[in-house]
Write a structure and sequence with these properties.
The chain is of the alpha+beta class. Helices cover 25% and strands 38% of the residues. It has 3 helices and 6 strands; from the N terminus they run αααββββββ. Strands 1-6-5-2 form a 4-stranded antiparallel sheet, with no helix packed on it. A two-stranded antiparallel ribbon has the order 3-4. It is elongated and about 70 Å long. Keywords: Membrane, Transmembrane, Transmembrane helix.
């Protein structure tokens, strides 16, 4: 009986440590990360919602979405996104709002760990009277 309690305490302790680590780093544990895919598959959930690719990432894939997610630019908005590698900026993107369509910046990751950006656009839906 004593041995079972020791094993239970060890398992609970390891589970708590992994849970705290994943919360602290903002990332899911290794087994839950999305697989790397081609660009169309990585952006498929957006395309089903009416988004289309406006600017492809400058770095080759395969890709997966990062926990940082995306930034939306409305008709009067502006966004600047920078992807850094230590102290150096490796990619910078500036977008100004457009009254014709919405824009969405999606942050992606390559297998080498490089972060890159894709821009999607969707026609703005006309508002009712």
């Amino acid at each position: 009986m004593n041995r079972r309690w020791v094993m239970a305490v060890v398992i609970v302790g390891v589970g708590a440590a992994v849970w705290l680590w994943s919360r602290e780093t903002g990332r899911a544990p290794q087994g839950r990360e999305q697989p790397f895919t081609d660009l169309d598959a990585a952006l498929a959930s957006y395309k089903t919602s009416g988004w289309e690719l406006d600017r492809a990432p400058p770095f080759p894939g395969p890709y997966r979405k990062t926990p940082e997610g995306e930034s939306m630019v409305g008709k009067g908005g502006e966004v600047v996104r920078r992807v850094g590698n230590g102290n150096a900026v490796v990619e910078e993107l500036r977008l100004n709002g457009n009254p014709e369509f919405d824009q969405l910046v999606v942050q992606l990751e390559t297998p080498s760990g490089r972060q890159t950006l894709a821009v999607l656009k969707r026609a703005r839906k006309p508002r009712g009277p």
